[in-house]
Specification:
eight-stranded mixed beta sheet, 290 residues, globular, alpha+beta, 7 helices
């Protein structure tokens, strides 16, 4: 069986509207603000391949439950990650049965958490309010403590996905890659294969990788990350250091990023928006491939 496909990435920020505004200025269409029952708030960037970016912050008056034995607190992890280093902190794969996945994670020793159900109100592109609901199953590796992993089952996908919100001025179509940096990538292949429900992956001296739908998920050395993104990554602990997005004209998005004062590295027709204090994750801009 192939690895399960990517569902979305969680991007933490102290200022939700500022980060959303930056993505909008770079040509992505960003959805309206949503609020979770415990007080985190998000704005989403959807893609036609049914992946998305979740821009998230801790809202005013949030009542985030703490982690407890057998209970992984999504809100607590998000708050801790933002306080530590805003940017990409969680990778989410798609699930058809999250409760069964929670049982599988427990049996394989990569998660002993109860599945988590929740619902919230959503707003469609035409302003219509709808209900969306999810069940999450969390996985965890002690030596990947700064990285969050879970699978997500959608119960009302017809209310969630919006073709209008998937049409981006910059022609963006999806997430091309997710890159985790570790000094010894092979140390993490057992966890990654269990999480992705895939027993075979590509391995080399530079790291390990597998394809989750149309997204390459990779764990690489700091040197390989520098080669791929053109920027440095800290060596430890293991962390999500970058991700790639497909756009119609990377050079045009890069020029706009420079006009906005964002740091930029160019290598041929691939461009990387450099990490910065308010968003410590590199963003690689890649050209669409038919």
């Amino acid at each position: 069986m192939p690895p399960r496909p990517l569902d979305h990435l969680v991007l933490g920020t102290t200022d939700l509207d500022q980060l959303a505004g930056e993505f909008e200025a770079l040509g992505w269409r960003v959805g309206a603000r949503n609020r979770h029952p415990w007080g985190t708030e998000n704005r989403l960037i959807q893609f036609a391949d049914e992946t998305f970016l979740e821009l998230i912050s801790v809202g005013e008056g949030a009542q985030v439950p703490p982690h407890q034995p057998g209970f992984f607190s999504f809100g607590a992890f998000v708050a801790e990650a933002i306080a530590r280093r805003p940017g990409l902190s969680m990778m989410v794969l798609r699930s058809e049965n999250a409760k069964a996945d929670a049982m599988r994670f427990a049996s394989e020793g990569v998660g002993s958490f109860a599945p988590f159900d929740f619902a919230r109100k959503g707003v469609k592109a035409d302003g219509t309010e709808v209900e969306v609901a999810f069940t999450l199953a969390f996985a965890h590796a002690r030596d990947l403590a700064e990285c969050g992993f879970f699978v997500c089952q959608q119960h009302f996908p017809e209310n969630f996905w919006s073709p209008a919100l998937q049409q981006h001025p910059n022609g963006a179509s999806g997430i091309s890659r997710v890159t985790l940096v570790a000094e010894n990538p092979s140390d993490h292949h057992i966890f990654l294969s269990a999480f992705a429900d895939c027993r075979e992956m590509r391995a080399s001296s530079s790291g390990i990788a597998l394809d989750c739908g149309r997204t390459r998920v990779e764990i690489v050395t700091p040197d390989t990350f520098r080669f791929l993104y053109g920027v440095e990554a800290r060596t430890s602990p293991p962390h999500f250091a970058g991700f790639g997005l497909r756009v119609a004209e990377p050079a045009a998005v890069a020029r706009q990023a420079v006009r906005m004062g964002l740091g930029m590295v160019a290598a041929g027709d691939v461009f990387t928006i450099e990490p910065r204090p308010g968003f410590a994750t590199a963003i690689r801009l890649e050209r669409l491939v038919a």
